[in-house]
Amino acid sequence: MVPALAVADALRAEGAGVVFVGGERAERTMVPDAGYELRAITVEGLSRSNPLKAARAALRAAGAVVAARRILGDVRPDAVLGAGGYVAGPVGLAAVARRVPLVLAEADSHLGLTNRLLARWARRVCLAFPIAGRDGERYLVTGRPVPPPATDRAAARARFGLAPEETCVLVFGGSLGARTINDAAVQALAGADFRVLHACGTRDYEELRARLGPDPPANYDLRAFIAPFGEALLASDLCVARAGGSIFEIAAHGRPAILVPYPYASADHQSANARWMARAGAAVVVADAQLTPARLSSEVAALLGDRVRLAAMGRASAALARPEAAQRIAEEVLAATR
Predict the structure, then answer these.
(1) How far apart are CA 26 and CA 202, in angstroms?
(2) What does the pLDDT look like over 30-63, one tens digit per residue?
(3) What dihedral angle (degrees, nearest 10) is formed by the CA atoms of 95, 107, 131, 125?
(4) What is the DSSP string of 246-290?
(5) Up-side HSE of residue 33: CA atoms within 13 Å toward CB?
(6) Which residue, of 18, 137, 172, 253, is most buried by count of CB atoms within 10 Å of its CB?
(7) How far is CA 51 from the centre of its chain?
(8) Alpha helices in 46-164 (DSSP H)
(9) Distinct helix (H) and strand (E) counts, the chain
(10) Phi and psi (nearest 5°) for 214?
C-alpha cells in the first residue's frame, strides 16, 4: 500500500482522479485515511500447500474478476495501475477484458505471480530493481515509490525527545513487527548507553512491554507503531530492520542499516534486497537464524564505534535512493491514457 499511495499522491498532484480497488487488509483503513475512495472486492492469496484453500481462492478470484469488471464499468477509468499482490490480479484481468490500458508496478526484486501473469498485456511494467530477463522495451526500472522523506532532522529528533548529542538506533519490522528482531533488540539494547526507538508492531507490543518491566530502561522507547514514519528514520543514526520495501525509505533518508531478511519471503526477495544494499556499502546483513542478542549487540557496537564507516554507509544509502519513483510511475500511467 505504501508504494500505491505514493503514486496516487503523484497522480492527484497532476490533477488525476484516483479510485482504489482492494480487499480487506491494510487498504481498508489506509486508503480512506489518505483521502481516496476504496471499492472492495473479496479475494485471497493462492495457497501452495493446501488444495482446499487453493480451490477456494480460485473460486473467489473468479468472482472477484466479475466484481472488478462491474467496478470498472461504473468508474470508467482511463487507465489501471496494478501495484502487485493478489488483489491486483482480478482488477488487471478486468482491465484487459474491458480494453483499459494497464500499467504494472513491481515493488520487490523479483516479479510476483500476479505481475508475471499480467505483464504480457501491460503497456509498461515499472520495476523497483533491475530483474534478469525483464529488460525489454516493456520494462522500466523506476525504483520503489515511497512517501516524500522527512527533511527537518532537528524537529524529528525533538519529536522523540532526543538531545542533539544523543545517538539513536531505530528498530522496526513492519506493521506486525518482526519477532526475531523484536526479541533480540529487547535483550541486547535495553539499558545501552544510546537511545533506542523501537517500533515493534501491534502483535508483540504488550509482551515486549511486559518484558521491559514496570520501570523500563530510560534509553528504550518502545512503541507499537510510529506515524509518520519518515521522522523516525530521519531522527535515527542507525536502523535495524527487515529488508522488504522499507529499504527504499531507509535509503531516502540516507540511513545506514543492519538488515535481517525475512527468510520466508516469496522467492527469498528480502535476501536479494539486503544484498543490493550491502553491495553498495549501505548495510550489514545478518541472517535471521543468526540474529542472537549477542550478535545484534556486537554489530550495533561495531558500527556506532566507527563513525567514519557509519557516515560512509549513510552516504552510500542516500546514493541508492530513487526519490522520483512515484512521479515516474505516475507519468507512465498518464502516458497510457493518451
Answers:
(1) 13
(2) 899 999 999 988 776 655 666 666 566 666 767 7
(3) 30
(4) HHHHHHHTT--EEE---TTSGGGHHHHHHHHHHHTTSEEE--GGG
(5) 10
(6) 172
(7) 30
(8) 51-75, 88-97, 113-118, 153-159
(9) 14, 12
(10) -70, -20
